[in-house]
Write a structure and sequence with these properties.
Blueprint lengths: L1 H32 L5 E10 L5 E5 L2 E4 L14 E4 L5 E5 L6 E5 L11 E10 L4 E6 L2 E6 L14 E4 L5 E5 L6 E5 L4
Antiparallel strand pairs: 1-2, 1-4, 2-3, 4-5, 5-6, 7-8, 7-10, 8-9, 10-11, 11-12
Length: 185
C-alpha cells in the first residue's frame, strides 16, 4: 500500500509542479506582451480574481491586467486607454473628466526616463498627480514618488537622465534652477 501511496503522491506533486510551470510561463508571456497592447474604449465587463487583478473587456477583447499597478479599481463604464509602447494605462471615470494613470511595469520606470525639453502643457490634478507634456510625450509625476511641491510651469525646461531620480527645472528668462527629487521603489 505504501508503494501505491508513494506513486499517487509523486503524480500529484508532478501535476502541481506542471500547473505552476504553465502559470509562470503564461504570466511571463502576458508580461512581455503588455507593452504591445493598444486599446481605447469603454470597459463593458470587469471581473476581479481572488488576488484583486482585473480582467477587463474593451471592444469585445479581454485583457488580464495581472501585472498592472492598480491604485484604483476599474469599473464597468470607465474608459481605458493603452497605447502600444507606453507602459501606462489611462483610466477615465464614467460620466466624469477624472483621469487616472496606472502602470504596467511595477518596477519604477521613472528611473529610466530621459528628457531635456520645454514643458508645452502641465496639469495639476487633485489626487497628487502632475501631467506634463514634453515634445509630444506625456509624463505623469505622482506625489508618492516625486516631491511636486515645487511647481512646474508651462515654458520650463525639464532635464532628467536615465538612472537617476532627479529632475532639473530651468525657468525661462531667469537664472533659477530648481530640482525635483524622486524616490525609487
Amino acid at each position: 500500500m505504501s508503494g501505491f501511496k508513494s506513486k499517487v503522491l509523486n503524480y500529484i506533486i508532478g501535476f502541481i509542479l506542471a500547473v505552476i510551470t504553465v502559470i509562470v510561463i503564461k504570466r511571463d508571456i502576458f508580461a512581455e506582451n503588455t507593452v504591445d497592447w493598444n486599446f481605447k474604449g469603454e470597459v463593458t465587463k470587469v471581473k476581479y480574481d481572488v488576488k484583486g487583478c482585473p480582467t477587463v473587456t474593451v471592444r469585445g477583447k479581454k485583457y488580464y491586467l495581472f501585472n498592472v499597478v492598480l491604485m484604483y479599481t476599474i469599473n464597468r463604464g470607465d474608459t481605458i486607454i493603452k497605447n502600444k509602447g507606453d507602459l501606462r494605462i489611462k483610466i477615465i471615470r464614467r460620466n466624469t473628466k477624472d483621469t487616472l494613470y496606472t502602470d504596467t511595469n511595477s518596477e519604477g520606470n521613472e528611473i529610466d526616463w530621459h528628457f531635456k525639453n520645454v514643458v508645452t502643457n502641465v496639469v495639476y490634478e487633485e489626487r497628487g498627480f502632475v501631467d506634463i507634456m514634453l515634445n509630444g510625450k506625456e509624463y505623469t509625476l505622482d506625489d508618492v514618488i516625486w516631491d511636486i511641491s515645487k511647481k512646474i510651469r508651462k515654458g520650463d525646461t525639464l532635464i532628467k537622465s536615465a538612472g537617476n531620480m532627479r529632475i532639473k527645472i530651468l525657468r525661462p528668462n531667469t537664472q533659477d534652477t530648481i530640482y525635483l527629487n524622486g524616490r525609487s521603489n
